[in-house]
Amino acid sequence: MSNTKPTIAVIGAGLGGAAAAALLQKAGYPTQVYEQAPEFARLGAGIHLGPNAMKVMRRIGIEDQLERMGSHPSHWFSRDGETGEYLSRIPLGDFAKEEYGAAYITVHRGDLHALMVDQLDQDRLHFGKRLEKVDDQGDQVVMTFADGTEATADLVIGADGVNSVIREHLLGEEAPIYSGWVAHRAIISAEKLKAYDLDFEACVKWWSGDRHMMVYYVTGDHKEYYYVTGVPEPDWNHGTSFVDSSREEMRAAFKNYGPEVQALIDCTETVTKWPLLERNPLPLWHDNRLVLLGDAAHPMKPHMAQGAVMAIEDAAMLVRCMETTGAENYADAFELYRYNRFERASRVQKVSHDNTWLRQNEDPAWVFGHDVYEVPLKDPKTE
Ligand code: FAD
Question: Active site residue: 34, 100, 104, 216, which one?
Answer without folding.
Answer: 216
